[in-house]
């Protein structure tokens, strides 16, 4: 990943948020479809993300991407974690993809990727088993760095526990994705 410098394009959609912190993507609108490049059916690389209005006093940022509709949006049972990144520098305004997909150093010297639900480290794109799923990209502004060991990448649960009492702001960007074969079946009136 490479840091994004400068302001976000004025045409960027506004995200759902509960503070002045704002999270957007140049790849999809809030509530819109995530392009297949950023999924298991494509390149499986993270979409570009940008953020604005980081609250004063922010020492680090945390990014979590998850899917609350797993395994079936009609009967969700678990929240599937796709990505966890902690201790992102507040001086970074976002990132875009580079050739070295494992490089989170551009998000600050302290940035560390955590474990996803596949029990691996790093980004894993949408790959819904059935139907259209919602993918929540959640950005948190914290008043401290999280004390995590890079040799033992943290889980979402560990990160959320460590964040308690330290959140200054939060922004959420929601993307949707449905596998092309599921979409074709649905549009042709066939049942799963």
From TrEMBL:
It comes from the Eukaryota. Pfam families: PBP. Gene3D superfamilies: PEBP-like (3.90.280.10). NCBIfam families: YbhB/YbcL family Raf kinase inhibitor-like protein (TIGR00481). This is Phosphatidylethanolamine-binding protein. It comes from Helicotheca tamesis.
């Amino acid at each position: 990943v490479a840091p994004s410098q400068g302001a976000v394009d004025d045409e960027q959609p506004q995200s759902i948020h509960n503070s002045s912190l704002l999270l957007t993507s140049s790849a999809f609108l809030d509530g819109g479809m995530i392009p297949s490049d950023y999924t298991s059916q494509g390149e499986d690389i993270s979409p570009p993300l940008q953020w604005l209005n980081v609250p004063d006093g922010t020492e680090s940022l945390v990014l979590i991407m998850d899917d609350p509709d797993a395994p079936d949006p009609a009967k969700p049972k678990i929240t599937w974690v796709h990505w966890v990144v902690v201790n992102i520098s507040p001086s970074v305004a976002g990132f875009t993809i580079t050739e070295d997909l494992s490089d989170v150093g551009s998000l600050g010297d302290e940035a560390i990727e955590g474990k996803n639900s596949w029990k691996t480290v790093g980004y894993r794109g949408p790959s819904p088993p059935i139907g259209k799923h919602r993918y929540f990209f959640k950005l948190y502004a914290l008043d401290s760095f999280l004390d995590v060991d890079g040799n033992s990448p943290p889980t979402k649960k560990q990160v959320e526990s460590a964040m308690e009492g330290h959140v200054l702001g939060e922004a959420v960007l929601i993307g949707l994705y449905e596998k092309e074969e599921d979409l074709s079946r649905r549009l042709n009136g066939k049942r799963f």
